[in-house]
Amino acid sequence: MIELIGIDKIAEQMQEVLIGKTIERVKVNQKKALNVAEEVYGQRTKGASVTEVRTHGKWLIIALDNSEHLLLSFTLGNDIFYFENGAIKKIKYPHNVEVHFDDDSGFTARFWWFEKFYLLNFTELSEISEDKHAALDPLDEAFTLDYFTTVLSGKKSQIKSFLMSQKKIGGLSGMYMHDILWGAGIHPAKKISEISVNDIKKLHTSIHEKITFFRRHMDFFDESKAFVGDDFFIAYLDNEEPCPNCGTPIQYLKTGSSSTYVCSTCQQL
């Protein structure tokens, strides 16, 4: 599954193979994801060629030579896969979006929840205001321990809800947060003001290690690398399954407005 933490990697891979390809047709199976009717989407993109693939905040943007832009959001997760020689049926996962090019290649997108697949012309694109100040990527060189410590300084909220707010650090959504906090031995409901300097260091390390691990499962060309539940450490374990570290049964708890997987031994409140 691809979320914000993998959007740049996918954009780079798409840029490698999609430049110059001409769109034959677009099929959308989740109409609520569109900002225009599917027929209009097809009319405005058919015969146009890809000139650039880039990112902007949560958006992956595919620019066309007729000033149109395909925008795919990465909020709760996507699986995006490339196919050649019309071999779309070889992609085993069901998909919400299909983009077909005139050389029998294309790509599909599967939404893990609800995402957007917009079509904007150049003028409309310039008016996008959200994500102008995108949060720092956890794998950015600027995401140092000093930066992280400064971000947390003076905060009193629960650590999980703060990190998921995307205000200072991007891409740390709930599905990753379970394993990140578990790796640092920090309970998701713990107040930031109660976290020790040493535990902040452990959390910074866990963020980098877990995000690096998860990013390996994001690939535009290889569906076999798609994320599955077994790729997580404690997230999505059945209630009462043992913690991989200590064997204590994993608990599924409500923390704030969301739920989380916790080891009561490794992550004491």
Describe what this molecule looks like in 3D.
Helix 6 packs across helix 7 (197-215). The model has no long low-confidence stretch (mean pLDDT 83). The strands form three sheets. The chain has a four-stranded antiparallel beta sheet with strand order 1-6-7-5. It has a four-stranded antiparallel beta sheet with strand order 2-3-4-8. The chain has a two-stranded antiparallel sheet with strand order 9-10. It folds into two domains: 4-126, N-terminal domain of MutM-like DNA repair proteins (Alpha-Beta Barrel); 145-262, Helicase, Ruva Protein, domain 3 (Orthogonal Bundle), CATH 1.10.8.50. It has seven helices and ten strands. With 269 residues, the chain is α+β, with helices and mostly antiparallel strands.
Descriptive key words:
7 helices, 2 domains, N-terminal domain of MutM-like DNA repair proteins, 4-stranded antiparallel β-sheet, Helicase, Ruva Protein, domain 3, 21% strand, 26% helix
